[in-house]
Amino acid sequence: MNKDVSTDQSIVRYENGELFETEDNYVTEFPLTIMVNGEEFATVICSPTNMEELVLGFLASEGAILKRDELKSIQIDDSKGFAHVELTKSLGDRFEYSTKRMIASCCGKSREFYFHNDAAIAKTSMSKIELQPQQILRMMTQLQSASVIFKQTGGLHNAAISDGGTFFEHRQDIGRHNALDKLYGYCIQRHISVRNKVLIFSGRISSEILIKAAKIGVGVILSKSAPTTLAVQLAKDLNITAIGFIRDGNFNIYSHPERIKAN
User: What Pfam families does UniProt report for this protein, alphabetically (predicted)?
Assistant: First the structure.
């Protein structure tokens, strides 16, 4: 069962020279401790929705599992904030660092798992997808339309995965990595191939986000915001098409423009 992603609570607001009591809607921050084979693996600070997808996508993107059938079971106890995962194998020596890490919702350097296993897990994209400009604009419009809770709270990252046509799945979280992990977990659960899919993202395309896209295995990532220089270099190296500043019917292609076919 998922908890509420946001809640109404009393606040004091200053407006037009006056202070007054009112209510505001803001997001829920939830610590989820992931136990793997009875051992504490990580605590992820997240929005308490689609938590099974989050756990599955997180474990896959961190290299704890390499395929769906390595997972025996996942049980979410959201009353206590635990996810109990049983694998068909031990984690072995794949993880040289200690477990029991806190994966903060703000991501960035606080996300201590990041970059440790990237060389082994990030994939050079083999995607053959080709997109028309109108498909790109439509996918960004779909993401913005789906971002209802963000419009209410301003406190969530939004992401979606699509094929540019009829397939479109949206997820949201206080952590940008978490939103992508939920989408990855959704696809793993349902045996949906991600190779010829597109990630649509609400925030900046940083190097971490680009590497996350590579770990998932998609060939295209879209954002209404800008990429960083390192993200563009990684996109070029990993054969990923990075597109940013998708606004007002326009966009910039920063890497591998050959996948975009204008009429």
Answer: FdhD-NarQ
106 classed as catalytic = no
Count of residues making up the chain:
263
Token pair of 42, please? 């990580």
**Which member of 46, 106, 107, 187 is catalytic?**
107
Residues 176-230 have pLDDT tens digits of 899 999 999 999 999 999 999 999 998 899 998 999 999 999 999 999 999 999 8
Question: At which residue do the structure tokens 């890497």 appear?
Answer: 255
Given strand 250-253, what is the order of strands in its sheet?
Answer: 168-173, 157-162, 198-201, 220-223, 241-247, 250-253
Let me know if 73 is exposed, middle or buried by CB neighbors in 10 A (0-12, 13-18, 19+). exposed
184 φ, ψ to 5°? -65, -45
CA distances from 74 to 51, 55, 178, 203 (A): 10, 8, 17, 30
pTM above 0.70, yes or no: yes
How far, CA to CA in Å, does 98 sit from each of 42, 54, 84, 202?
A: 10, 21, 18, 32
Count of CB atoms within 10 A of residue 90's CB?
10
Element (H, E) at 251: strand 250-253
Residue 92: strand, helix, or coil: coil
* Contact status, residue 230 vs residue 223, Cβ threshold 8 Å: no
- Could you give the CA distance from residue 257 to residue 240 in angstroms, rounded to a whole number? 9
Distance of CA 7 to the CA centre of its chain: 22
In contact, 40 and 100? CB cutoff 8 Å: yes
d(CA 71, CA 85): 8
